[in-house]
Amino acid sequence: MHLRKTFFAFLSFLSISAFSQGNTGTVKFLVEVDNGYFEILIDDTLYLKNYKTTLEAGQHSAKVWSPGYITTEVSFEIKANETVEQFVEMAISNERQVYEKEYSAYRMKFHKSLTIPGSVTLATAITSGTFMILAYDRKIQTLKDVDLYHAAPNLEQVELHKSRIAINNSKYNRYRAGYYITGGLSILSLATTIYTYTKFKKNNIEPTLNSESPFKDRFSWSVSPVSFGLTYRIG
Question: In this structure, are residues 55 and 86 in contact, taking their beta carbons and an 8 Å threshold?
Fold first, then answer.
């Protein structure tokens, strides 16, 4: 008798499950946002970046939110064994518009403050590097001329290499002096750039966009055979 009751209970469970599965449909959300993140509250369940889920047939409502956008509410009907595509056009929030304006002004001010010292630092560093390469090249050439001077077979060759040594050595000294001068200026410019950047960051706060979810205080985790999301607490 006990086995018979268990058997009938099992059959009833299968029937209910089959009916439930046969009485469901799928909704696919097409959310128009530029940041790739959105939250969808459907009835009492919150889905994070999940654009497709299975629901019971009937009327449903959903709220869609994304950082920088106004929370948008939509209604849709689920039909059994069918897929519904629900397009959600999101409007940019006033807060984001203010943020973008303030951030643009911040970046403009940043570039104006750092462009000159940064450009000078880069220019002096490149110039210093160029002088270093030229000085090294003249030094190598001078050493070669010294070897040729000592190996000269006649007085004419001696005078020729002596003259070349004097010219290359003079150029080497000029390039070396240029390297040290521009190297010092490069270090000074770098220090100025660092100081300017530190002062700018101290006196100017970078604008930020509030990306706090309006649903954050009212949900808990929820796992079911057909979906994975967060259960939204009403009230």
Answer: no
